Amino acid sequence: MRVLFASLAVLAVAQVDVNRLGPAVGAAAPAFSLVDQHGRTRTLASVAGPKGTMLVFFRSADW
Amino acid sequence: MELQSHLEEIRAKGLGLAAMSYDSRETLAAFAAKHGIAFPLLSDTGSATIRRWGILNHEASDREAGIPHPGTFVIDTRGRIVSRAFETEYQVRQTAPAVLAAAQTGTSRQAPKPAKQPRTIQARQLSVTTSQSDVTAAPGTRLSLNVDVFPKPKMHVYAPEQTGGYIRIELDLDDDPAFTSAKPVFPKASNYYFAPLEETFKVFDAPFRIRQDVTIALTPELRRRAASNDTLAITGTLKYQACDDEVCYRPDEAKVFWSVALKPLVRR
Q1: Tally of CB atoms within 10 A around B130
Q2: Chain B window 66-85: which residues touch A at a Cβ cutoff of 8 Å?
Q3: Phi/psi of residue A10, each to 5°?
Q4: By 3-state DSSP, what share of chain A in percent is helix, strand and coil, each rounded to 5?
Q5: What does the DSSP assignment read for B199-213?
Q6: Is A57 close to B17, i.e. CB distance below 8 A?
Q7: Complex ipTM, two decimals?
Q8: Which residues sit opposite B7 in a β-bridge?
Q9: Closest chain B residue to A48 measured between Cα atoms?
Q10: What confidence tens digit (pLDDT) does each residue in B160-184 have?
């Protein structure tokens, strides 16, 4: 069943124009305040390094 | 998790690394412990942030409802997006070094830094060093191949922006069903004023880098090759015409080559 879901997702995602997803280059990154794996509240500023941040969105750690 | 192995490299660039998903804090904590993750994993339960960023995958349903389109943003200290990369297929992932490389294009006037596995080729009027963002890669992942071109003194080559019948520098990878190629990325060209003709040309007259991203095919054949630790050879041709202040030389080409050690895809 899971394989079937994954295959359907391939077909569906293929139609999304990934170049138009989310903020464009030069746009402001939307703010966030979320807990990390240790339960600490994190914001863009708190995860940033001296030159900025690499923020990765991933599907899930669960499957 | 592939990102963890690049943490040092990312931090060395002065960037903080964080990864976000719709998983609960507990799920992320277990995942971090299992994989030795030493950077923040952010829990967006309910996917409100994923929605606000405009990257919610609306097609996903049931168990997967709430997942984002997987992608990576590099954000500067003023909170502006500097670069972004999204996966074009469900399982295709940008490797972290490729995203880092993409974040850095535009700084073209600096002398290129050698990346991994450099190989230098002496050609007429210039030398060429190939390198790559990753030495190993899994089927479905994307990596950057670099061609650093060093024109010999006083030499220039025509940039892609030059119009008219000039022979512009061009990188062509040989077709192979084992991978797909993105469009090669060139830096911005310089203006070269040629007094005798009173004309300005778009050229490269200092060392520059061409970045060519490739995505390893996610096919049974490639999975099999990866399982047996096979090596993928990628070959191509750099075509150019070099000129100095007096003459333009005969159009020439240099063969370029990379090898990528295939490894099995580990789902995160």
Answers
A1: 23
A2: 67-77, 79-84
A3: -60, -45
A4: 30, 25, 45
A5: EEEEEE-S-EEEEEE
A6: no
A7: 0.78
A8: none
A9: B16
A10: 999 888 889 999 999 999 999 999 9
